[in-house]
Fold:
Amino acid sequence: MAETYRIGVLGASGYTGADLVRLAIAHPAMEITVLTANSHAGHPMAEVFPHFAFVDLPDLATVEDADWSSVDVAVCGLPHGTAQAITKAVLDSHPQIKFVDMSADFRFRDPAVYAATYGKPHQAPELQGEAVYGLTEHYRDAIRDARLVACPGCYPTAALLALLPITAAGLINATDIVIDAKSGVSGAGRAAKQATLFSEVGEGLSPYAVGTHRHAPEIEQEISKVASRPVTINFTPHLIPMSRGELCTAYLKLAGGATVDDVRATLAAAYRDERFVHVAPEGVLPKTQNVRGSNYCQIGVFADRVPGRVIVIAVIDNLVKGSAGQAVQNFNLMVGLDEATGLMQQPLFP
Amino acid sequence: MAETYRIGVLGASGYTGADLVRLAIAHPAMEITVLTANSHAGHPMAEVFPHFAFVDLPDLATVEDADWSSVDVAVCGLPHGTAQAITKAVLDSHPQIKFVDMSADFRFRDPAVYAATYGKPHQAPELQGEAVYGLTEHYRDAIRDARLVACPGCYPTAALLALLPITAAGLINATDIVIDAKSGVSGAGRAAKQATLFSEVGEGLSPYAVGTHRHAPEIEQEISKVASRPVTINFTPHLIPMSRGELCTAYLKLAGGATVDDVRATLAAAYRDERFVHVAPEGVLPKTQNVRGSNYCQIGVFADRVPGRVIVIAVIDNLVKGSAGQAVQNFNLMVGLDEATGLMQQPLFP
Amino acid sequence: MAETYRIGVLGASGYTGADLVRLAIAHPAMEITVLTANSHAGHPMAEVFPHFAFVDLPDLATVEDADWSSVDVAVCGLPHGTAQAITKAVLDSHPQIKFVDMSADFRFRDPAVYAATYGKPHQAPELQGEAVYGLTEHYRDAIRDARLVACPGCYPTAALLALLPITAAGLINATDIVIDAKSGVSGAGRAAKQATLFSEVGEGLSPYAVGTHRHAPEIEQEISKVASRPVTINFTPHLIPMSRGELCTAYLKLAGGATVDDVRATLAAAYRDERFVHVAPEGVLPKTQNVRGSNYCQIGVFADRVPGRVIVIAVIDNLVKGSAGQAVQNFNLMVGLDEATGLMQQPLFP
Amino acid sequence: MAETYRIGVLGASGYTGADLVRLAIAHPAMEITVLTANSHAGHPMAEVFPHFAFVDLPDLATVEDADWSSVDVAVCGLPHGTAQAITKAVLDSHPQIKFVDMSADFRFRDPAVYAATYGKPHQAPELQGEAVYGLTEHYRDAIRDARLVACPGCYPTAALLALLPITAAGLINATDIVIDAKSGVSGAGRAAKQATLFSEVGEGLSPYAVGTHRHAPEIEQEISKVASRPVTINFTPHLIPMSRGELCTAYLKLAGGATVDDVRATLAAAYRDERFVHVAPEGVLPKTQNVRGSNYCQIGVFADRVPGRVIVIAVIDNLVKGSAGQAVQNFNLMVGLDEATGLMQQPLFP
Structure:
């Protein structure tokens, strides 16, 4: 590998930032030069994440104090709402930087949808216009040419990988999509909250944000695009007593005489050459255990008891393919590397 | 409490049997006289379940060696398929015994559905004809008069409590029901299986029996009855890394102009006087943590993003309201006690 | 049960307070009249702990606004350091109230030890002089007569039940005690802390407060008393990825020719008539699963490979026998009830 | 990397075998040519471990049918007791093969100790004489020249890394060692056992094999060697509700005037140049979370409250540094590669 890219990670004190660091350490063409975390500026990364005690990393810095001239590519793990202004500031002052955003800030093509979903106007609409939606397998060419890539949310990644090819092929009724989603607790972030204490979520299960989760409009944006009409979907997330992993069970109506086998065959064909998206053979059940710690997505297709319906199930690791892994995959494309560079870690099981 | 009933527990080495024992110890009118577990006959219960080391219990016996003349009411926690012949043998020789079956053997009114679902003909069809379906809140009068009660499966308990009143009221389209179900691992029983080892299911999540779970026909039997026509439903279970607890998320289409508020109001009215079934106020999310170790069922009703749809969520403890607790509730009715006797334990949280 | 005692729970928004409420609901002679939680005053208990949605409870109040004239017995689940002043205020204004404190504030007979351990002078030393250490099995007579009982810490409860009889009998060397302790996460309380988030402690294990835990001086106080000389002990706690449960493994040197069997026999004799403390037969391993949700303590005695040494292992539920259950046990004694009233719930397994 | 070594994994259907496969896939100089699992012969690896569905691997074969001529190095993950005869058969027929054994079969230099510990005579004592104990950091030179390396048990790995340097330096009293050990459930293997079902070990904690665990004599063998006299140690393992990870807390007496700082400094010096063994700075607590999925060992040294004592804590991932990772580390030495080749994966947190 001839070239090395200098990486700055914004928001390195969160789980997605940390997983990006984990992947960057293993990446043959990434060198971490900047780590920001405003509340821990001046401290070693190993104080914040002690599992990094065994590697050399730059100390944490504020966004303002970081030396952005030492950065070729920035990856942003800041909380939603805070990324857009900082992205703009960094890109304005250092326009040569390529930017991979893992937050939600640049995912909506329509700033009005952003404002409606996140409750405030977008602070960098001109960058929004430039941003490419980073669902790698479906936006590969645009990502290659992008300066700013907005990685999808974890749920949208799993749901859209499962639904886009069959919606585009007209095999399912796009206006009758039910997505029951389940996620590990790391998706809720590392901020101290009573609701995600071990004793609160251990040995238990709960739905949350029923009918109101912000990933629903994001899924709708992409489904609507391939369906060529605006669609509203059901999306209902549940919190599972595990740290990593995400599973979407999609309940769908077959359209135009399509069969369950058509659905499986279409997905298999769509992802035949993909290294990270795999369609399971008939009868094989996707499990989050199959993809833990890896960049894989596994999709299974099942006949429903109800005639004319099909069930499609997708699993990912929410922090990898659902965030940091997909960010690295997009980085690879943006700088011209093989897309799988540094990402072929096998799942950690058990 | 004037009278005490002598209880025999068949299959006391399984989780539902053990939870029945736990509840019976706390019950003011139950005295355990017989515990069977053929593979552990002759051994103390505390050898098989060491958490019973602190109470006096009869030693385990074989079904054949147990003294059934010392039993007023038998509660059966045997595995599916084995209960029917043993029930018949016990009732033939001791017809005075009342019988509460927690297995699946007497749940299907139509022996042909049993045969189709469980893959072999029913071995006691005459008892099947006599058996009352033990969903207490919906079959209370029949249970009072029954000699043999077939307690519902854990999933059907949660699903039917949520769906029966609104299906009967015509508020939802009975032919378009999707039930995404999630259960703790204890539902898979105590037999040694690789698939339910800690290292296999911990930190992970998987669907199972997609499109083929045996609780689907049971739910269909009851939904069809109140809908007055045969219906097929979607029912898709998932295995959650927790021991106890069950949550059903039902995705439904509103019918005949009904609203989400109608659904909530109808459920609230149906269960207004119930001590174990509670409809949550608008905005309150059911969680399995809210019912752990208790006989409660909590139901929540939510607007879907998709117009014309509603989401109904029900939680129970699969071993209590989903099995042993409901069995005690039915026992109370069968012997003329207050239905809640011995069952008012509050949930154990955290 | 002729009489009912009106109970006020201070600090009802914490885990020990909530478990006291759970036990009080089941207690035939307790009626909850006051629940305090200053930060949630005016709100229903079910908002703070949704598992109480199914019972009637008073709304939460501030300590100041609570009607203490409606209280016969107060049970205090306030954080360490805040209990003493509030206890004093309540007792000064309502001297008829009996007080059971679950905090650490009145556990040290010597205010200097309190000050050294908790880093500030005691604010109610005169009450400290009156307080009885509430390790029920070892202070039963004094508890019966007490107005103020200081329940032991969870770790001291398990450790002292295991060690006091054999130290008193001179069977072990009191100056060579090593206690390796393990606790579930609920012991860290319900305040939002990053360190006890699910994703931080799940699938992992760590020691904490090595050499510095505040329960060590408490154990030393009691061991020193029965050893009739000041002793320092090793006490090293570890955080286990479970919510409830506590296990102390004590590594001990046999003294004066004592044998492992002597140790077991002495413990068995000491607790022969106890309903909550049980010494396991030789070869039976204590597990926290055996006591989950119950007021039991189980103790096992094992030969070490190293000659002249013995291993004693004790398990409790940290929130029950380690806190709220022992508080109820002490309440029963203080008001003249049978000590086990309302406490015979069997363990919840699985 | 010029050369590739063809790897055969014996016992690929167990957890250590699977983790070896995971590491081998990532290893730039390993090519897996043989996978054996007699009970699954003829089946794809992905049927047995579905997380390997995304890579190409040889089908499983019986030991007898495997083509050992295609193997340069065999790594054995067979259960204890079965490895020795098979190792002998393979080496007799293919003496060119280098052999890394992860079982317990060749760990005891003295076959009499093996026989006493495992209850039957050793079946390949001549190979035992040749085997090198594979604690890499302490037997590096011998491993380089070995044909047969016996990787230490998981507990001995953690315990010995912590204890050997300070015992050799005379800083602790070798006859007064107490090791309280805690392990995740994967250490119990993948065979279906009731005792390791999720519902049995979840939300709970138990000791096991108290005073009798087979890793104690292994630890004693090595401690005795550096202490230059036979020592007996305390070793008490506990089962923790997590899949991976292991923590040993060693309670030690300082000898010859040594201080806690001496202990830390000696360990730090011993491992200064090691890439996988790290001594934490004063005050930093080792956690299994810090090493999950990695080949690291982290060691912390703490002052005890009891004067003259010290606490040393070591954590590893039981399947990596405690088994498959150390096997790869030894493989690297045996074939002349850099010792860390393919092993620098960072811990997976959360």
Remarks:
- Chain C has a mean pLDDT of 97.
- Residues 185 and 297 of chain C are 19 Å apart (CA to CA).
